[in-house]
Design goal:
This protein is mainly alpha-helical. Helix content is about 65%, strand content about 5%. The protein has a four-stranded mixed beta sheet, sandwiched between helices. Helix 8 packs parallel to helix 10, helix 8 packs antiparallel against helix 11 and helix 10 packs antiparallel against helix 13.
Length: about 400
């Protein structure tokens, strides 16, 4: 092959790829459904999600008290709980039945029952108990109650010890009541917030799922517009399957490069989510993630026969993929067969890698497993997309020739 013919092939390939990119971009902007998934949903959905969890933690959770002791010490215990950030005492019930009635009516979400021998056991220098009943419809309620009661009991116990050390100096009292000083430091999520824990994973999943559904809509539209329900009409097939895959992928990559910057950089800044990673290193991770999502989508959508079915299948998968990512439930206790299934989706490695880098401050070398896995997925799904389009082209040409001869 001469250099001239080789140069002509390169020029023709670039021209065809550019034409396919332009046509695909035109298809995107002229399809309202695709615009919703490619532009509106990625920009609006994270804002809605973040506004819902903007408070990060549950504060002033309502609690009712059943004080069977009714002594200055029991009332002081209730007052200290009410003075904390997390709990608000909304009333006192005369018995447990009355308190349960308040729980059923959602006037309170927890019951603190102080037994009748509470003060008596303190005077006798015996261990006493306070019983907590919590509405488990939300674990955040239970967490707020448990942390508050634990902190108040420790603080009150310390004060009781100090009262019994009247003859000692302040320093001696301090050493006896708190011989070891400690500081509670929460790594990577200083506020213990729900948004800081969950939103980064959701942002990555939004990229994959909106891209998948948008490309599925484009695929369904392409199949509806031609006789043989293929991904591309026969008269618009260009030489070289690679050009088709490359042109389409370039269109999606350009759109989602902007979307990814907004989701993974702007949204965390707007809502003050933890950002500890190096921005350029995160971009190195996100690049193979976007490519793997694009080729994954192009491979999967070949099995979608119409536009409507994509809504049922892919939206249903979103919650499952969040569970499989190892964020909402620890990856170490996920059964091996579910973990194996999760490795088929780019979101699994994208979520793990992004959280380690952005939230925990890891370097690219420290997420080499996720980074390598994304490149492997990119390679295999590119082969899958290539074969899918190649098979569609060959099938269309055979049917076209057969009908032409007939």
């Amino acid at each position: 092959m001469s250099n001239k013919s080789f140069k002509n092939i390169i020029k023709e390939g670039i021209r065809d790829s550019f034409i396919i990119w332009k046509e695909e971009f035109r298809n995107v902007i002229h399809d309202a459904g695709v615009i919703i998934f490619f532009i509106v949903a990625p920009f609006a959905y994270p804002l809605l999600y973040c506004f819902i969890y903007d408070n990060e933690v549950a504060k002033e959770v309502c609690m009712v008290v059943v004080d069977d002791c009714n002594t200055p010490q029991s009332r002081e215990f209730s007052r200290l709980c009410d003075a904390t950030r997390d709990v608000r005492i909304v009333g006192k019930a005369s018995n447990m039945e009355e308190a349960k009635h308040m729980l059923r009516e959602k006037k309170a979400y927890g019951i603190m029952m102080i037994p009748s021998d509470f003060s008596k056991k303190i005077v006798r220098d015996e261990k006493t108990y306070v019983v907590l009943y919590s509405d488990m419809s939300s674990l955040l309620y239970y967490k707020a109650f448990l942390v508050t009661l634990t902190d108040v009991s420790l603080e009150m116990g310390k004060d009781i010890q100090i009262e019994r050390m009247a003859g000692l100096s302040n320093r001696e009292q301090e050493v006896l009541t708190a011989p070891i000083e400690y500081e509670d430091v929460t790594y990577f999520n200083p506020q213990n917030g729900f948004a800081s824990f969950l939103i980064p994973a959701v942002l990555i999943l939004v990229i994959q799922q909106t891209m998948l559904m948008g490309i599925a809509l484009l695929s369904g539209a392409a199949k509806d517009k031609n006789t043989y329900r293929d991904l591309l009409p026969i008269q618009r097939h260009y030489r070289g399957t690679f050009r088709i895959v490359f042109g389409k992928s370039l269109c999606y990559l350009m759109i989602y490069s902007v979307v990814a910057v907004y989701l993974l950089w702007c949204v965390p800044i707007i809502f003050s989510l933890p950002q500890m990673g190096d921005g350029f290193a995160i971009l190195e991770l996100i690049f193979p993630f976007l490519l793997s999502c694009i080729f994954f989508s192009l491979t999967i959508v070949s099995f979608v026969r119409d536009r409507e079915s994509s809504f049922v299948i892919f939206i249903f998968m979103s919650l499952i993929l969040l569970f499989l990512s190892g964020i909402s439930w620890p990856a170490s206790v996920v059964p091996w067969y579910w973990k194996s299934i999760s490795y088929l989706f780019p979101s699994t490695f994208g979520i793990q890698g992004f959280i380690k880098m952005n939230t925990m401050g890891a370097t690219l070398n420290q997420v080499s497993f996720e980074y390598t896995a994304l490149w492997i997925q990119t390679f295999f799904y590119f082969i899958g997309a290539f074969l899918v389009f190649r098979w569609q082209i060959i099938r269309s040409e055979k049917i076209y020739r057969k009908n032409k001869h007939v």
